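Before any further analysis, we paired sequence with structure tokens, yielding the entry below:
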Amino acid sequence: MDHKLVVYNTLTRKKEVFKPLHEPFVGMYVCGPTVYGDAHLGHARPAITFDVLFRYLQYLGYKVRYVRNITDVGHLEHDADEGEDKIAKKARLEQMEPMEVVQYYLNRYHKSMEALNVLPPSIEPHASGHIIEQIEFVKKILDSGFAYESQGSVYFDVEKYNKKYHYGKLSGRNIEDLLETTRELDGQSEKRRSLDFALWKKAQPEHIMRWSSPWSDGFPGWHLECSTMGTKYLGEEFDIHGGGMDLLFPHHECEIAQSTAALGHETVHYWMHNNMITIDGKKMGKSLGNFITLDEFFNGTSHKDANGKELIEQVYSPMTIRFFILQAHYRSTVDFSNEALQASEKGLSRLLEAYGRLQKLQPAATSTVDVKGLRERCEEAMNDDLNTPVVIAHLFEAGKAINTVADGKGTISAQDLAELKETFKVMVEDVLGIKTDAEAGAGADAYKKAVDLLLELRLQAKQNKDWATSDKIRNELTALGFSIKDTKDGFEWSL
């Protein structure tokens, strides 16, 4: 395939030309949510980032198998090896079955993803549905000598692994220093070193989620799930592994170690990480309690922060949230604020307005506006490590040309018009995944028709020289925030 898609590979710390292992097929694995609470803005970011990658790879003609897992067991509090399972804890507090908790929040996650126009992955495996495969994976690591059993649990031996391979290569941490200072005090712990991590945990009597294994009744370690499911569905080597930067260490570092220990080689060719969404400079997350759920954005309800200030000032549509995330490069942090979201809302409506006006443009013999090469420029930006902010800037530029023609201050030829319509559709809808009619979802049509009806009545009033009615309709709509423009064919309006 003749394209120059370049992606930033966290493993090599540089941008590299993307070459899949088995063209035209691409295998991509992304860490999905641990479903014990509602999805928040921080969850929307990896979902949207890798949705755009998924869409763009398909746009380039690849056949993509996209695996995004659901963690429904084994993720303990504080991402640690001790403590309560996050889902089991929620189940205990809510007096529900753990799988009831999982199903409830998974349904809500899917609904939020659909609202954000995030395409479903090709496969969505659950950790709890792959216990047998995980047990087999642990056996392979034990057989290769890089794990040990201790009181019914199995731990990964980081020190031993690091002698042969390099633990810390993804995150760039110097593990030697840590190893020198972390030998566990005798008898203090089941682990030989605090750096060692659980592959299988023996369940305490009160632990509800448990399965039988050769070592104990227990449950798999959090990191193990992704190694097992990634290689099961994408093969012992695959192209892309994505996730949030907060998973880089220890989660993804442990994944590399487990897979290398079990298979004798690395599995992933390109590691890609999106950066965090911050709120007042701190990472937004459930553990810090400073998160805003997607439902709160969509409904305009929110809780107050520590100072008693409402976190959200208004309702934000799912497409505003999507646009807000795409306006920043996926590897840069995004700081949440109402001002930033309101600016995104205005930007999105400007883009959608231009898109709407584009559909109504009439071609002329020649073009006085220059819209040539728009698609190439957008592709060039996408090929440069998915630079969505630059794509949006190019589309805004083209929007100016559309408005010039729509306002009768310029012309566009039939060929340029056809090309512009095609590029806008492909880039806005297919690649960026922005729904162009989505501002009010199902109610949008009825709402547009109602405003059109009022303006039709105003036109009739003008024709009947009933200036009082005509002015009243105009003034009241303007007061509500509508901008109305009389044209030779009637009228145009926007909110």
Summary: Residues 279-431 form a domain with the Isoleucyl-tRNA Synthetase; Domain 1 fold (CATH 1.10.730). The longest helix spans residues 338-360.
